[in-house]
Amino acid sequence: MEYLIGLDIGTSGTKTVLFDTQGNTVASATEEYPLYQPQNGWAEQDPEDWWNAAVKTISQVLSLSGVQPQQVKGVGLSGQMHGLVMLDEAGQVLRRSIIWCDQRTASQCEEITRLVGAKRLIELTANPVLTGFTAPKILWVREHEPEVYAKCRHILLPKDYIRYRLTGQFATDVSDASGMSLLDVPNRCWSMEILKKLQIDPSMLAKVYESCEYTGSITGECAALTGLAEGTPVAAGAGDNAAAAVGTGVVKEGRAFTTIGTSGVVFAHTDSPVIDPEGRVHTFCCAVPGCWHMMGVTQGAGLSLKWLRDNFCAPECQTAQQLGVDPYVVMDSEAAQVPIGAGKLLFLPYLMGERTPHLDPDCRGAFFGISAIHNRPNFIRAVLEGVSYSLRDCLEILRGMKVNPNEMFACGGGATSPLWRQMLCDLFGCPVKTVTSKEGPALGAAILAGVCAGVYESVEEGCRQAIRLGQEQAPIAENTDAYEPFYQLYRSLYPSLKGAYGALARL
Questions:
Q1: DSSP alpha helix (H) spans, 234-337
Q2: Which of 71, 345, 346, 439 shows the smallest number of beta carbons within 10 Å?
Q3: Which one from 240, 276, 360, 393 is the annotated catalytic residue?
């Protein structure tokens, strides 16, 4: 038997999954780690935490499965995008990584836009520069921590730091690099024009590969730590959403998926780069060679529900412990008892600012319509609905650009909730499909590793062999009608609050 490993370096933890070549999960392990927020709107993680989690989970899946190291034919990587990892000449981490949801770089975004030009920036990178992206983080460190920047010799993304520790090689892939504001996205290479204007030394950047290409192999030192065989090939891999697309079979025109993880995404595959001149949605290279994808992003999707759980749902957590179930199952059950509209309570899921469609790092979360009749189930339902409204915003922009997928899949932790999936069906006005595997990004990374190792002929062939469809939910017409006035009211709230958000940020 032959096997493949997919590592997903997420925000809440790293998951390593061992698959057979038919896409069946043989063993899985997850290790969590902290998120540091030194100031409001800041978000950092320690790359050493990622590495320790990777070593531990790789060792665990090999141990749990009893699979021999030589039977693992390839390793693939997926991970949170945009995070800045800075290494010195000896390959040592210089500071904690500033990760994707950090919002400190508004002035650096303005500087980059001025230096490159707003129109030219979108022509080259297919996107405006955003506070979550990597380039403004580089400039922030150069401005505020010049002693750190002076020592920097290598700039990596989170999953690419794990690659470096696995293989000793500095490499990235086109999908992950697309979110740095440094890649020429239409031509799938670093933009020398941008690097020159920003005065960033190109030698600090890793070599760019297509997602299924070979980037190095497991070193002897890594083999001793993890139990993998020395020489096992490591594929370029992909950013988390591009990997999730492969893991759900969204690898051809007309297919799309919605994921509800820490962030939320509506992602559509395209065979050519379609660029929004207003920059409300992202256009990135995808994990299929020579193809692209468009996606709208909600910064605080699952994050919003986790925040509610951790701060206000102790009774639900206690009940879940007594029943031996996940707290989200109890929260779902309570929310399902509340009618559509959550008792006229609306939630804006802007806990970490927002990307699509507002591009506003200053906006913040809000509950609108709170009254004395509301209880925790109302608030839980309002959060589920608010995130769903935000994802509807993303889809509406894609539809307005004539990207109108005819197949919609759901993945991510939030998509395991039948209630949340039904909300998406009803608000999108289309059926939502699932796949049997719940390991989207990790499975996508493993499929890319299989192509790299010659197990599959292509990404599309890997998907045909490894992915099977699960259940499908259809929209309920009366629910669609019932949600519409609440969604329209939701859309009106951000414009009303925009000025107040700016004033709050200046206080």
A1: 240-248, 302-312, 314-323, 327-336
A2: 71
A3: 240
